[in-house]
Amino acid sequence: MESNVKGDKNASQRVGQESVLVPSQSVAYNFFAPESSVGLLYADQRMEQQLSSALSLLLLFTAISVSTAMHPSTRRLGVVGKLVESDFEVELPPEFVTYLYSQTLDHFSYRPESYTTFQQRYIINYEYWDGPNSSAPIFVYTGDEAGITGVAAYTGFMFELASRFNGLLLYIEHRYYGESVPFGSKDEAFSSTSKLGYFTSTQALADYAELITNLKKNLSAENCPVIAIGGSYGGMLASWFRLKYPQIVIGALASSAPILYFDDITPENAYHVIVTKDFRETSENCYNTIRESWSEIDKVAAEPNGLANITQIFMTCEPLNSSQELKYYLALRYVFSAQYDNPPTYPVKKVCDAIDGAPEGTDVIGRVAAGLNASVGPPCHFVYDFIPSNMSEFQWQMVMPIGHGAIDTMFQAWPFDLNNHTKTCQGLFGVTPRPHWITTEFGGRDIKSVLRNFGSNIIFSNGLRDPYSAGGVLQDISDSVVAIYTDKGAHCLDLGTPTATDPDWLVSQQQKEIKIIGLWLAEYNARLLSKAHGRMG
């Protein structure tokens, strides 16, 4: 393997001494091709089937429990800016080099099985790095609920940081996702609760700490500062990583990280209130049409041949089994549109323009169907009855209490039900969730006091059209724990690749982030220089 490292031609070779270089094995889509959009997946009709299934599994830990009267299963909405499933793979350019690291299974106990290892995948891009001798930074993406190749494809802002600061890019895959699955296979890893017990955010952060420490040693880069970057769940991990391992990372950029959406810190309806606000601000008529549509769908479905008629109107690929099935699918499309209501596609406007622009005389159901077709497009819609699965990574991890009543949003009532969620977990995995552990482990209550006293060098970035901004940090905590948000942006937009057509408000947000990160690096280098002078003196 030929090294791409400036100033250190043996760096790649040394990484390989404790890691195994592996080629990309499964390629689904090339997001670097000219016809592709790094905004990801809005316009790609080929993704329709995968999008439909992925929409029910978007953010691991978002558990939206439906009352038994409505539907006897646990639902989730999500946060994945990449919108990729765990086994989804993206073809990356050759400058992205893939390695495997022999990772410790259990970082926190000393039982014999704790020392078992599994192969954790990570990716390095050396293109911009000045090498260890210049103490050039390392920008690490704290892997989240997806295969790491999709993450590397989406987070183009990291390229901007690397080129500005001559940095190395490192992307680490979260345990139990992608190809970083303990016990040899997903079937084996999910075969028992005792094996799933190692699947936690706390273990994942320890993975990152161990891998980074090992990598810096192999690259002789002990003096190179590390900055954690993540979006959505990855953003939560980035902020927690800075708090838990300040000796490993000097700072963190946490984009669209809803670290306050636990317990009762954030109102459970806040997510859907923002979705509703996004649609209502776009079009009052669109909002009213969607609000009226739920009862109309139930009414038509109850008529003779009603489900068959609705199946035809909404062009579903398979016959509908219930009106609830369709309503859940529509709700997912609406929240997806709001969560990613970013330029240049602006999906909320796209839906509302179609609803408002339907021919005169079109009834409510026809207008909603027009909005759906504008959001996704023909030839048909894959609508599924999403059943909780004990093979789902997303079903396992955390409890994020999201729900809403009958009058506070444009949706039908869907209250969060912890008891129902608990029964689902017990039925699937034989375990009882600990819904309050996140705030015990990572904090959340009295966040200003906690971060002011114990935190530093964290950027919390948000777009206020993102429903998850309701659970984000939106106020500066201190001089070094800061909130940067935009009124018009939505989910994880600032992590995308900068383009010449970006709106001014997005350019300003990213420039602020670059400036702050530059200050962190300058302060680190000043301390490093002072320390060196002290040794010489």
Description:
This protein is α/β, with parallel strands linked by helices and 537 residues long. The protein contains 19 helices and eleven strands. The chain has helices at residues 11-18, 48-54, 148-154, 157-165, 186-189, 193-196, 201-218, 233-244, 270-282, 284-301, 306-313, 323-339, 347-356, 364-375, 393-396, 418-429, 437-442, 447-454, 504-536; strands at residues 19-21, 64-65, 74-75, 96-104, 117-125, 138-142, 168-172, 226-231, 251-255, 458-463, 481-486. It has a nine-stranded mixed sheet, with helices on both faces. It has a two-stranded antiparallel ribbon with strand order 2-3. Strand 2 and strand 3 form a beta hairpin. The protein is globular, with a radius of gyration of 23 Å.
Features:
alpha/beta, 9-stranded mixed sheet, two-stranded antiparallel ribbon, 19 helices, 11 strands, 11% strand, globular
Question: Would you kindly provide a brief summary of this structure?
Answer:
The chain is 39% helix and 11% strand. It contains 19 helices and eleven strands. The strands form two sheets. Strands 1-4-5-7-6-8-9-10-11 form a nine-stranded mixed sheet, with helices on both faces. A two-stranded antiparallel sheet has the order 2-3.
Total beta-strand segments: 11
Strand portion: 5-15%
Helix content: 25-40%
Q: Report the end-to-end length measured between terminal Cα atoms.
A: 42 Å
Mean pLDDT, as a whole number?
85
- Please mark out the parts with pLDDT under 50 across 5 or more consecutive residues, or reply none: 1-14, 16-85
The run of helices and strands is HEHEEEEEHHEHHHEHEHHHHHHHHHHEEH
Main beta-sheet annotation: 9 strands, mixed
